[in-house]
Request: fold
Amino acid sequence: MKRSMPKVSIIMPCYNDGLYIHEAIESVLQQTYKNIELIIIDDGSDEEDTINILNDLSDERMKVLHTENLKPAGARNYGINIASGEYILPVDSDDKIDATYVEKAVKVLQNNPNIGVVYCEADLFGEQNGKWDLPSYSFETMLLDNIVFVTAIFYKSDWEKVGGFNTYMDSGMEDYDFWLSILAVGKEIYQIPEILFHYRIKKVSRTTQFMDNSMQVKEIYSRIYDSHEEFYEKYSKVYAKILRDALIEQTFLKRKYEFELKRLLEGYEEENVIKRIMRKLFC
Reply:
């Protein structure tokens, strides 16, 4: 039988995010669910303001640890390893969570033993604003690409079972790799149909740098497949159909954009011809 209010350990890696971390911390400490601990991992920050802010933090509900630039996956593993909570929630030091997120997620986990991960809908703030246009959760979509952000609640015991976050994903996507590991051990993922997570968009971030490098993207997805080869073999028929559908969709989109581009270029040429005729007639 589940305890009425098991502890939730919130894991917050920080690398030079002093400008934003107070907002992130405040959103954690304002949770309506009170049995929480906040573990902040200073992952080798070298910015003076960030170092001073982290050194000044003082609250009995939080711990501040120091590591030497393990990067997000390693820093999360470091914090989770010493966490005393039954549940784990990673929150990056520049993001925010709604005050009711933990309470609502824990309720789902306690009432559904087959569910191992709970997340929610999200919105964007910072350089962009509005709802984060992620697809609704489905197992089939997860076979193809990640639609679950890292700020999701899961069992520490499942983290131990799958070996934690894969630090070999040094360019990103360690959350996708981790969710696939959770699915592979038979747990389900559930999305709360409500915006409870607020994701900060910066001009430059690890995500934007990753998505700008096609070779790096191919390499990381190849690593993910290799790490979960048995899982993909188990669902090979489903995966093949999803890949086929994605290829068809991309082919039709390519045709559409090529047609639109051709039409724009033809219009541009016609406009230039008219301008040349007008110059000859009236100049």
